[in-house]
């Protein structure tokens, strides 16, 4: 019986070569078929042309990157409808406030394009969607109980009354990166997502 002699040095070299080939292939896929040497050479030329300054590769933002939009989780909304979880008025309210949902925070704000968006209270929401305050208040209270809205407090408003800030459950409507949901939102709706109906939503973001 002959013993098989393993050359670990040679095996390691082959493994490294294989890793380098994989890295090279990944690089070419990310840079539209150009290999690392070609990119490095191009960077050297650009660096020389700019007086030896360090050069970085970047891409110009698409004009569409400034477009504001919200995402509706269609299967979740359909699931709630099938289970008669929302009234017609609540559905209309959610549709009306979509245009005021701020990016990332998912809070209802006055101007979604503002650098530092100003949150709006119940009275201001009523004005924005052109309904009576009492009507808006009832719907918000109902949606808070159902776990689709969260009402927070932001210090003191007028007449020593606390100003409320309304946030939307991102499992229904979300203005942000669904793969990187705001941590504060996760805390706000953590308990709500454990309740009957919501715990069985077909699509979960957290």
UniProtKB/TrEMBL annotation:
InterPro entries, per the entry: WH-like_DNA-bd_sf
Organism domain of life: Bacteria
The protein, known as: MarR family transcriptional regulator
Organism annotation: Bacillus cereus (strain VD146)
């Amino acid at each position: 019986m002959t013993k098989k002699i393993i050359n670990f040095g040679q095996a390691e070299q082959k493994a490294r070569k294989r890793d380098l080939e994989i890295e090279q292939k990944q690089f070419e896929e990310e840079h539209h078929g150009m290999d690392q040497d070609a990119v490095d050479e191009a960077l050297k030329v650009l660096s020389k042309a700019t007086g030896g300054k360090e050069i970085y590769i970047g891409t110009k933002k698409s004009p569409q990157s400034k477009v504001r939009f919200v995402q509706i989780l269609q299967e979740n909304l359909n699931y709630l409808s099938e289970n008669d979880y929302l009234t017609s008025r609540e559905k209309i309210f959610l549709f009306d406030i979509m245009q005021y949902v701020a990016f990332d925070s998912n809070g209802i704000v006055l101007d979604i394009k503002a650098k530092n968006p100003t949150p709006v209270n119940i009275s201001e929401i009523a004005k924005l969607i052109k309904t009576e305050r009492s009507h808006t208040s009832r719907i918000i209270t109902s949606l808070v109980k159902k776990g689709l809205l969260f009402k927070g407090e932001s210090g003191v408003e007028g007449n020593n009354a606390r100003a409320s800030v309304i946030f939307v459950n991102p499992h229904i409507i979300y203005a942000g990166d669904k793969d990187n949901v705001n941590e504060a939102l996760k805390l706000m709706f953590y308990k709500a997502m454990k309740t009957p109906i919501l715990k069985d939503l077909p699509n979960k973001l957290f």
